C-alpha cells in the first residue's frame, strides 16, 4: 500500500506547511481564543447578573450559536454579512469583509458561546461567602468580580478552557472552505499540485494528532497541579 509513498514531497513542503500554514493556524487559534474568552466572560456575567433581560439575551445567544454547525456560520458570515452591511450603510455595493476577518469574527462569536458556559460554571464554583465578604468590605460588584471572583474562576476553569482551545485549534481547519491557507489548506494545495493526496493528508492528520495529544497531556498535568493547590 505504501510502496509508492513519497516522503520527499513532505520534506520539500515542510517550510511552506509550517511557516505559512501552521503559523496562520496558530495565530487564528490564539486570536479566536482570546476574543472568545473576553466576549464569553461578558456573556457569562450577563447571564449571572440580576437583570432578567440581560440574562435572557445572553441565554438566547448561547443557545443559538451552539445549535448551529460551525461551517454554516462561517459561510453565513462570509457571504451574507456583506449584504447586511450594504443594507445598513446604504452603500452602492456589498461591503467587503474578507476571508480572514470573516473567519476570525466567526470563531470569536462561536467560541464565546462555549467559553461563556465554562466561565459561568467557574464563577458559580466560587463560594457565595466570598462575594458577600467582598461586599461587606465595601467592594462594588465590578471590583468583586475583578479582584475576587474572576481570578479564582479562571484558575479553576483553566484546564477546561485549554481543552476548548484544543478543539478550536482543530476547528480552524474549516477555514479551508474559504480558500485560506491554514495548515490543512497548505497541505491540500501541495497535495493537489504534486498529485500526492495520501502523503499530504496523512501527514496533516499526524501533525494535528501530535499537537492535540501533547496539549491534552499538558492539560492533564495542569489539572493534577491545580488539584494539589486546592
TrEMBL record:
CDD domains referenced in this protein's UniProt entry, alphabetically: TM_PBP2 (cd06261)
Membrane-topology annotation of the record: Multi-pass membrane protein
Main location: membrane
Top-level taxon: Bacteria
Domain ABC transmembrane type-1, residue spans: 22-219
GO cellular component: ATP-binding cassette (ABC) transporter complex
MF annotations from Gene Ontology: transmembrane transporter activity
GO terms classed as biological process: amino acid transport
TM region(s), chain numbering: 24-46, 67-85, 91-110, 160-180, 200-219
The UniProt record lists the keyword Amino-acid biosynthesis: no
Subcellular location(s) of the protein: Cell inner membrane; Cell membrane
UniProt keyword annotations, A-Z: Amino-acid transport, Cell membrane, Membrane, Transmembrane, Transmembrane helix, Transport
Statement: the UniProt record of this protein carries the keyword Ion transport: no
Family: Belongs to the binding-protein-dependent transport system permease family. HisMQ subfamily.
Subunit structure of this chain's protein: The complex is composed of two ATP-binding proteins (GltL), two transmembrane proteins (GltJ and GltK) and a solute-binding protein (GltI).
Its job: Part of the ABC transporter complex GltIJKL involved in glutamate and aspartate uptake. Probably responsible for the translocation of the substrate across the membrane.
Protein's name in the database: Glutamate/aspartate import permease protein GltK
Amino acid at each position: 500500500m505504501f510502496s509508492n509513498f513519497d516522503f520527499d514531497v513532505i520534506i520539500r513542503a515542510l517550510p511552506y506547511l509550517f511557516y505559512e500554514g501552521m503559523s496562520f493556524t496558530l495565530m487564528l487559534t490564539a486570536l479566536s481564543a482570546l476574543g472568545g474568552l473576553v466576549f464569553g466572560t461578558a456573556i457569562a456575567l450577563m447571564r449571572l447578573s440580576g437583570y432578567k433581560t440581560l440574562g435572557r439575551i445572553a441565554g438566547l445567544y448561547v443557545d443559538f450559536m451552539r445549535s448551529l454547525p460551525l461551517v454554516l456560520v462561517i459561510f453565513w458570515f462570509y457571504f451574507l454579512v456583506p449584504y447586511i452591511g450594504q443594507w445598513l450603510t446604504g452603500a452602492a455595493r456589498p461591503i467587503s469583509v474578507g476571508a480572514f476577518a470573516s473567519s476570525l469574527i466567526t470563531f470569536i462569536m462561536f467560541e464565546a458561546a462555549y467559553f461563556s458556559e465554562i466561565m459561568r460554571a467557574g464563577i458559580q464554583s466560587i463560594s457565595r461567602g466570598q462575594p458577600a465578604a467582598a461586599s461587606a468590605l465595601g467592594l462594588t460588584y465590578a471590583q468583586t468580580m475583578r479582584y475576587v471572583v474572576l481570578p479564582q474562576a479562571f484558575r479553576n476553569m483553566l484546564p477546561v478552557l485549554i481543552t476548548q482551545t484544543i478543539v478550536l485549534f482543530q476547528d480552524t481547519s474549516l477555514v479551508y472552505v474559504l480558500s485560506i491557507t491554514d495548515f490543512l489548506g497548505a497541505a491540500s494545495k501541495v497535495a493537489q499540485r504534486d498529485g500526492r493526496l495520501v502523503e499530504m493528508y496523512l501527514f496533516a492528520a499526524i501533525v494535528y494528532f501530535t499537537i492535540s495529544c501533547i496539549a491534552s497531556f499538558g492539560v492533564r498535568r495542569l489539572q493534577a497541579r491545580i488539584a494539589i493547590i486546592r
